[in-house]
């Protein structure tokens, strides 16, 4: 395996980004730039106090297929410089543009595919509108606007409170936990929406107000024209973080291919039973400990790359 640390400055931002370019044995000219999901995620998919190696394990699966990968630390995470809480969607798009440009310019790369996972799936089309790629994978994303996704996730959480059974559910409803959560959520969101500050503090916690404001108005469909012909949408039937049916809807809107893996969750693992948003981190940790990257996901990518034909000229 050939590994190279790549560091680049993102024009128009205060961010210096670090990432790793990895070329496996058997490499044959096809490469991937991975755009990660939301949160303070580093190149390997880790967040503070939780090392899960989500993107490292996914990259290793691609390496086994002979695909080179570029993964980078988001602003303020890993080796990248900057303040994570000051970065918005526009900054993540600018970082992705420069990352894609860096890999496209490498002489050993014949074909590059942008893979956007979760939040990365949403901003991928905006990146492609500035720097075209040979392929795109809309991975565990949602076809709704940013505000619709945020509302969907809150509604799902509230539904779980309403349906919680037993004495615990009774007690939570008795003390109006649901109403208290909604009231607090509305208060903090209003504070972020009504300020021009890039970040705020709420009860001692830092919150990314710029990201929230930009997410409210963002719609990937504004960039549907930038989706390359060779693209694919993937989702898992056990994914509760995004709206089900998004992969099929994306494929219909763009004239591309959809792959739905019924027992795969948001973190690319096999999941036999439904998830609970109220216990999602505990369940994810268990799935990481017990399950590898879903084998059907690897098969889907193998078929995708086998069918991809590099351009005649780079």
UniProtKB/TrEMBL annotation:
A Pfam short name: Hydrolase_4
Keywords per UniProt: Hydrolase
Gene3D superfamilies: alpha/beta hydrolase (3.40.50.1820)
Domain (Serine aminopeptidase S33) ranges: 53-207
InterPro entries for this protein: AB_hydrolase_Est10, AB_hydrolase_fold, Hydrolase_4
Alphabetized GO MF terms: hydrolase activity
Protein name, as recorded: Alpha/beta hydrolase
Organism of provenance: Chryseomicrobium palamuruense
């Amino acid at each position: 395996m050939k590994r190279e640390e790549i560091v680049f400055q993102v024009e128009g931002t205060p961010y210096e980004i670090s990432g790793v370019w990895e070329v496996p044995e058997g490499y044959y000219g096809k490469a991937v730039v991975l755009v990660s999901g939301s949160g303070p995620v580093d190149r390997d998919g880790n967040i503070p106090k939780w090392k899960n190696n989500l993107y490292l394990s996914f990259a290793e699966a691609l390496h086994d297929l002979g695909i080179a990968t570029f993964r980078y630390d988001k602003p303020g995470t890993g080796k990248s410089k900057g303040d994570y809480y000051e970065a918005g969607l526009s900054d993540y798009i600018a970082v992705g543009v420069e990352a894609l440009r860096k890999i496209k310019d490498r002489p050993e790369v014949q074909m590059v595919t942008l893979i956007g996972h979760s939040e990365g799936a949403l901003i991928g089309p905006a990146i492609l509108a500035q720097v075209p790629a040979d392929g795109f994978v809309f991975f565990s994303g949602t076809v709704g606007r940013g505000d619709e996704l945020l509302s969907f996730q809150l509604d799902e959480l509230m539904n779980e409170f309403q349906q919680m059974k037993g004495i615990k559910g009774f007690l939570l409803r008795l003390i109006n936990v649901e109403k208290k959560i909604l009231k607090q959520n509305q208060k903090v969101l209003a504070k972020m929406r009504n300020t021009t500050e890039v970040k705020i503090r709420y009860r001692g916690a830092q919150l990314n107000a710029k990201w929230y404001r930009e997410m409210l108005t963002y719609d990937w469909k504004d960039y549907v024209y930038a989706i390359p012909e060779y693209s694919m949408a993937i989702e898992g039937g056990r994914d509760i973080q995004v709206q089900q049916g998004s992969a099929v809807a994306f494929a219909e809107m763009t004239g591309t291919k959809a792959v739905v893996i019924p027992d795969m969750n948001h973190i690319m693992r096999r999941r036999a039973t439904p998830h609970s948003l109220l216990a999602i981190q505990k369940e994810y940790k268990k799935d990481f400990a017990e399950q590898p990257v879903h084998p059907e996901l690897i098969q889907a990518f193998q078929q995708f790359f086998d069918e991809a034909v590099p351009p005649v000229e780079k």
